[in-house]
Amino acid sequence: MARSTAFRKKIRRAIREILQRAVDNAKPRIETKARRVGGATYQVPLEVPSDRQASLALRWIVDFADARKGMPMRDALAAEILEAYQGQGNAIRKRDDVHKMAQANKAFAHFRW
């Protein structure tokens, strides 16, 4: 009995580590926000606060899991988490797209305030 309890604790710890690493992999470091300056709107790159990073990462993982058709949500969510853990999948692609957009607009960084 004690062995199965220790085994369960070990498995739970591994699951938490996988989820934590998946969320860490999907977190965006910078994003763009629209700023209106002199009648023109610029996409200004800004650093993302840590609580928003986690929120965006979790939202993307859940949204992309929900968008998977033909499989139960629990299976889709597990697949999306494992893909994010491995550094691939839709949530990682979304993070990379956000980073590319911020990198492309870094010329407008002086507009942030």
Question: Brief overview, please?
Answer:
This protein has a single domain, classed as Ribosomal Protein S7.
Polypeptide structure, described:
The protein is 63% helix and 14% strand. The protein has 113 residues and is an alpha+beta fold. It has one domain: Ribosomal protein S7/S5 (Ribosomal Protein S7, Orthogonal Bundle). It has a two-stranded antiparallel ribbon. Helix 1 crosses helix 2 (50-67). The relative contact order is 0.18.
Keywords, separated by commas or semicolons:
113 residues; Ribosomal Protein S7; two-stranded antiparallel sheet
General form: elongated
Look at the structure and give the mean pLDDT: 91
CATH topology, which one?
A: Ribosomal Protein S7
Radius of gyration: 18 Å
What is the H/E order?
Answer: HEEHHH
Report the biggest beta sheet as strand number plus sense, adding barrel if it closes.
2 strands, antiparallel
CATH class: Mainly Alpha
Tell me the number of strands: 2
CATH architecture, please? Orthogonal Bundle
Low-confidence stretches: none
The CATH homologous superfamily is named: Ribosomal protein S7/S5
Which class do the helix and strand fractions yield? alpha+beta
Number of helices: 4
Strand order of the largest sheet: 1-2
